[in-house]
Write a structure and sequence with these properties.
The complex is a heterodimer of chains A (about 110) and B (about 110). With about 110 residues, chain A is mainly β. Chain A has strands at about 5, 10-15, 20-25, 30-35, 45-50, 55, 70, 75-80, 90-95, 100, 105-110. In chain A, strands 2, 4, 5, 6, 9, 10 and 11 form a seven-stranded mixed β-sheet that branches. In chain A, a hairpin with a 6-residue loop joins strand 5 (about 45-50) and strand 6 (about 55). The termini of chain A are far apart. Chain B has about 110 residues and is mainly beta. In chain B, about 0% of the residues lie in helices and about 55% in strands. Chain B has no helices and eleven strands. Chain B has strands at about 5, 10-15, 20-25, 30-40, 45-50, 55-60, 60-65, 70-75, 85-90, 100, 105-110. The chains are: A mainly beta (about 110), B mainly beta (about 110).
Protein backbone atom coordinates (compact mmCIF):
# COMPACT_ATOMS: atom_id res chain seq x y z
CA UNK A 1 0.00 0.00 0.00
CA UNK A 2 1.10 3.54 -0.72
CA UNK A 3 2.70 5.48 2.11
CA UNK A 4 1.82 9.15 2.07
CA UNK A 5 3.70 11.82 3.96
CA UNK A 6 2.19 15.23 4.45
CA UNK A 7 3.72 18.30 5.97
CA UNK A 8 3.18 20.35 7.89
CA UNK A 9 1.05 18.14 10.10
CA UNK A 10 -0.40 21.22 11.73
CA UNK A 11 0.08 24.96 11.67
CA UNK A 12 -1.39 28.11 13.07
CA UNK A 13 -1.61 30.88 10.51
CA UNK A 14 -2.49 34.52 10.45
CA UNK A 15 -5.37 35.85 8.41
CA UNK A 16 -4.31 36.97 4.95
CA UNK A 17 -1.27 34.75 4.71
CA UNK A 18 -0.78 31.69 2.51
CA UNK A 19 0.48 28.24 3.38
CA UNK A 20 1.72 25.44 1.17
CA UNK A 21 1.10 21.83 2.12
CA UNK A 22 3.34 19.15 0.68
CA UNK A 23 2.36 15.58 -0.12
CA UNK A 24 5.00 12.94 -0.87
CA UNK A 25 4.15 9.37 -1.88
CA UNK A 26 6.59 6.48 -1.68
CA UNK A 27 5.62 5.17 -5.11
CA UNK A 28 4.51 6.57 -8.44
CA UNK A 29 0.75 7.06 -8.60
CA UNK A 30 -1.40 8.37 -11.38
CA UNK A 31 -4.23 9.84 -9.36
CA UNK A 32 -3.70 12.27 -6.49
CA UNK A 33 -6.44 14.24 -4.82
CA UNK A 34 -6.78 16.96 -2.24
CA UNK A 35 -9.65 16.85 0.23
CA UNK A 36 -10.75 19.22 2.96
CA UNK A 37 -12.35 18.15 6.21
CA UNK A 38 -13.82 21.05 8.12
CA UNK A 39 -14.43 20.69 11.86
CA UNK A 40 -17.13 18.10 12.51
CA UNK A 41 -17.70 17.60 8.81
CA UNK A 42 -16.93 14.95 6.27
CA UNK A 43 -14.43 15.08 3.47
CA UNK A 44 -14.97 17.38 0.51
CA UNK A 45 -12.94 16.98 -2.64
CA UNK A 46 -11.08 20.15 -3.55
CA UNK A 47 -9.36 19.03 -6.73
CA UNK A 48 -7.61 16.31 -8.64
CA UNK A 49 -3.90 17.00 -9.03
CA UNK A 50 -2.89 16.17 -12.59
CA UNK A 51 0.74 15.51 -13.41
CA UNK A 52 1.99 17.88 -16.05
CA UNK A 53 -1.22 19.87 -16.38
CA UNK A 54 -3.52 22.11 -14.41
CA UNK A 55 -5.49 20.60 -11.55
CA UNK A 56 -9.16 19.82 -11.99
CA UNK A 57 -11.19 21.71 -9.40
CA UNK A 58 -14.55 20.77 -7.95
CA UNK A 59 -17.45 23.16 -7.78
CA UNK A 60 -16.83 25.82 -5.17
CA UNK A 61 -13.04 25.65 -5.35
CA UNK A 62 -10.88 27.84 -7.58
CA UNK A 63 -7.26 27.87 -8.58
CA UNK A 64 -6.59 31.34 -7.24
CA UNK A 65 -7.56 30.24 -3.75
CA UNK A 66 -6.12 26.72 -3.86
CA UNK A 67 -3.27 26.55 -6.36
CA UNK A 68 -1.97 23.01 -6.81
CA UNK A 69 1.25 21.72 -8.25
CA UNK A 70 2.02 18.19 -9.43
CA UNK A 71 5.54 18.18 -10.84
CA UNK A 72 5.87 14.38 -10.89
CA UNK A 73 4.07 11.16 -10.03
CA UNK A 74 5.14 11.13 -6.38
CA UNK A 75 4.69 14.70 -5.21
CA UNK A 76 2.06 17.42 -5.03
CA UNK A 77 1.50 20.66 -3.18
CA UNK A 78 -1.64 22.51 -2.20
CA UNK A 79 -1.48 26.17 -1.29
CA UNK A 80 -4.22 27.79 0.74
CA UNK A 81 -4.05 31.44 -0.26
CA UNK A 82 -5.10 34.59 1.54
CA UNK A 83 -6.39 32.56 4.45
CA UNK A 84 -9.37 33.45 6.59
CA UNK A 85 -10.69 31.71 9.71
CA UNK A 86 -13.15 29.84 7.48
CA UNK A 87 -10.17 28.01 5.98
CA UNK A 88 -9.43 26.38 9.33
CA UNK A 89 -9.66 22.75 8.43
CA UNK A 90 -7.81 19.52 7.92
CA UNK A 91 -6.42 19.17 4.42
CA UNK A 92 -5.85 15.63 3.24
CA UNK A 93 -3.83 14.36 0.34
CA UNK A 94 -5.03 11.09 -1.10
CA UNK A 95 -3.83 8.76 -3.82
CA UNK A 96 -5.37 5.94 -5.75
CA UNK A 97 -3.09 2.91 -5.67
CA UNK A 98 -5.49 0.02 -5.93
CA UNK A 99 -7.38 1.63 -3.07
CA UNK A 100 -7.83 5.25 -2.07
CA UNK A 101 -5.22 6.02 0.59
CA UNK A 102 -5.09 9.13 2.70
CA UNK A 103 -2.23 11.02 4.22
CA UNK A 104 -2.39 11.89 7.90
CA UNK A 105 -3.66 15.34 7.06
CA UNK A 106 -2.54 18.88 7.73
CA UNK A 107 -4.54 20.64 10.42
CA UNK A 108 -4.62 24.39 9.76
CA UNK A 109 -5.91 26.93 12.23
CA UNK A 110 -6.33 30.46 10.93
CA UNK A 111 -6.52 33.22 13.50
CA UNK B 1 -29.01 18.49 -0.98
CA UNK B 2 -26.25 16.20 0.16
CA UNK B 3 -25.47 13.42 -2.27
CA UNK B 4 -24.56 10.92 0.42
CA UNK B 5 -26.44 11.02 3.71
CA UNK B 6 -25.66 9.36 7.01
CA UNK B 7 -27.08 9.64 10.49
CA UNK B 8 -24.45 11.48 12.50
CA UNK B 9 -25.08 9.43 15.63
CA UNK B 10 -23.63 8.68 17.99
CA UNK B 11 -24.71 5.09 17.63
CA UNK B 12 -24.06 3.31 20.89
CA UNK B 13 -23.94 -0.49 21.09
CA UNK B 14 -22.70 -2.86 23.80
CA UNK B 15 -19.59 -4.90 23.24
CA UNK B 16 -20.36 -8.08 21.33
CA UNK B 17 -23.48 -6.69 19.67
CA UNK B 18 -24.06 -6.01 15.99
CA UNK B 19 -23.63 -2.41 14.91
CA UNK B 20 -25.65 -1.36 11.87
CA UNK B 21 -24.56 1.74 9.98
CA UNK B 22 -26.70 3.12 7.19
CA UNK B 23 -26.18 5.39 4.23
CA UNK B 24 -28.39 6.66 1.41
CA UNK B 25 -27.30 8.31 -1.79
CA UNK B 26 -29.05 10.46 -4.34
CA UNK B 27 -26.85 10.04 -7.42
CA UNK B 28 -28.19 7.12 -9.43
CA UNK B 29 -24.98 7.25 -11.45
CA UNK B 30 -23.00 6.06 -8.44
CA UNK B 31 -21.55 2.65 -9.14
CA UNK B 32 -19.19 1.96 -6.28
CA UNK B 33 -19.49 2.43 -2.56
CA UNK B 34 -16.95 2.48 0.19
CA UNK B 35 -16.88 2.43 3.95
CA UNK B 36 -14.04 4.20 5.71
CA UNK B 37 -13.25 4.22 9.40
CA UNK B 38 -11.78 7.36 10.93
CA UNK B 39 -10.43 7.47 14.45
CA UNK B 40 -10.36 10.85 16.11
CA UNK B 41 -7.45 12.90 14.85
CA UNK B 42 -6.52 10.29 12.26
CA UNK B 43 -7.04 9.97 8.53
CA UNK B 44 -9.71 7.70 7.05
CA UNK B 45 -8.86 4.08 6.34
CA UNK B 46 -10.77 1.85 3.95
CA UNK B 47 -12.74 -0.98 5.51
CA UNK B 48 -14.78 -2.31 2.61
CA UNK B 49 -16.04 -1.54 -0.84
CA UNK B 50 -19.04 -2.90 -2.71
CA UNK B 51 -20.10 -2.58 -6.33
CA UNK B 52 -22.92 -5.09 -6.77
CA UNK B 53 -26.33 -5.44 -5.20
CA UNK B 54 -26.42 -7.79 -2.25
CA UNK B 55 -24.09 -8.55 0.61
CA UNK B 56 -20.33 -8.68 0.82
CA UNK B 57 -18.66 -10.13 3.87
CA UNK B 58 -15.13 -9.62 5.16
CA UNK B 59 -14.44 -10.96 8.61
CA UNK B 60 -16.69 -9.19 11.10
CA UNK B 61 -17.83 -6.68 8.50
CA UNK B 62 -20.67 -7.04 6.01
CA UNK B 63 -21.51 -4.38 3.45
CA UNK B 64 -24.95 -4.37 1.87
CA UNK B 65 -25.99 -2.53 -1.28
CA UNK B 66 -29.46 -1.98 -2.68
CA UNK B 67 -29.24 0.16 -5.80
CA UNK B 68 -33.00 0.24 -6.33
CA UNK B 69 -33.45 1.82 -2.90
CA UNK B 70 -30.16 3.75 -3.15
CA UNK B 71 -29.14 2.35 0.18
CA UNK B 72 -25.84 1.10 1.56
CA UNK B 73 -25.17 -0.34 4.96
CA UNK B 74 -22.32 -1.70 7.03
CA UNK B 75 -22.83 -4.33 9.69
CA UNK B 76 -20.17 -4.93 12.30
CA UNK B 77 -20.58 -8.20 14.16
CA UNK B 78 -19.17 -8.85 17.62
CA UNK B 79 -18.48 -5.13 18.07
CA UNK B 80 -15.38 -4.27 20.05
CA UNK B 81 -14.47 -1.05 21.89
CA UNK B 82 -11.70 -0.65 19.31
CA UNK B 83 -14.40 -0.29 16.67
CA UNK B 84 -15.41 3.02 18.24
CA UNK B 85 -14.78 5.57 15.52
CA UNK B 86 -16.55 7.60 12.87
CA UNK B 87 -17.60 5.59 9.83
CA UNK B 88 -17.74 7.38 6.52
CA UNK B 89 -19.80 6.18 3.59
CA UNK B 90 -18.60 7.24 0.15
CA UNK B 91 -19.87 6.80 -3.38
CA UNK B 92 -18.11 6.94 -6.70
CA UNK B 93 -19.30 7.19 -10.28
CA UNK B 94 -17.17 4.40 -11.64
CA UNK B 95 -15.57 1.27 -10.31
CA UNK B 96 -12.27 3.08 -9.92
CA UNK B 97 -11.99 4.89 -6.62
CA UNK B 98 -11.28 8.19 -8.27
CA UNK B 99 -13.09 11.13 -6.80
CA UNK B 100 -15.49 10.03 -4.10
CA UNK B 101 -18.41 11.82 -2.50
CA UNK B 102 -18.39 11.31 1.25
CA UNK B 103 -21.21 11.33 3.73
CA UNK B 104 -20.82 13.26 6.94
CA UNK B 105 -20.10 10.09 8.92
CA UNK B 106 -21.71 8.18 11.76
CA UNK B 107 -19.97 8.10 15.10
CA UNK B 108 -20.04 4.63 16.64
CA UNK B 109 -19.48 4.03 20.32
CA UNK B 110 -19.02 0.46 21.53
CA UNK B 111 -19.57 0.26 25.25
CA UNK B 112 -17.40 -2.30 27.11
Amino acid sequence: SAVISQKPSRDICQRGTSLTIQCQVDSQVTMMFWYRQQPGQSLTLIATANQGSEATYESGFVIDKFPISRPNLTFSTLTVSNMSPEDSSIYLCSVEDGELFFGEGSRLTVL
Amino acid sequence: QKEVEQNSGPLSVPEGAIASLNCTYSDRGSQSFFWYRQYSGKSPELIMFIYSNGDKEDGRFTAQLNKASQYVSLLIRDSQPSDSATYLCAGGRDTGRRALTFGSGTRLQVQP
